[in-house]
Amino acid sequence: MRTLMTTQNQNFYREQIQKEMLTRLAWKTRYSKLYPAVLPPVTTASERQKHLPPPPPPLPPLPPAVPAGGEGGLSVAPLMRPVSPQTREALYQASSHHGKGRSLYLQRRGQKRPEEKFDFPLLSSWEYGWRLGLDYRSPASGRSSVVKNTFYARNGIFNNPSATDTLLG
Fold this sequence. Notes:
Layout (H helix, E strand, L loop, with lengths): L6 H25 L13 H7 L33 H7 L10 H10 L2 H4 L26 H12 L7 H6 L1
Helix pairs in contact: 3-4
């Protein structure tokens, strides 16, 4: 847990700030002649030009802009496949508070596999599960055996699964 800000801690920080300020002032008084804070003032414009770096060379002109949909223009491939008309209509039906509208749209889009929504994997991490097929199912007890072996056995808690536990998986 963090330390609480007590009066003692506040006094300590106040002393640290004062000590740092006095150290800076002592350094300033000792070395101010060697390290001036500002440069000596320059009076004329010609002397100012001496201190300025040369101007950068001009940039080359930009190529003419090509319209995205025009002739000779390259169009960007869409990332996501278009939505079916039924799913699109679900988006505009009613409010999502009643399970329609946006929530129904997101539910329908979430039920589709990534291969049905996209033409290609957008991220390299998508390649691991890309095109697994319809026969893929996550294991029903993939995590429960690890929990049983590590938690229940060590702590002396008896695991008696009920009939409703198998219905949830």
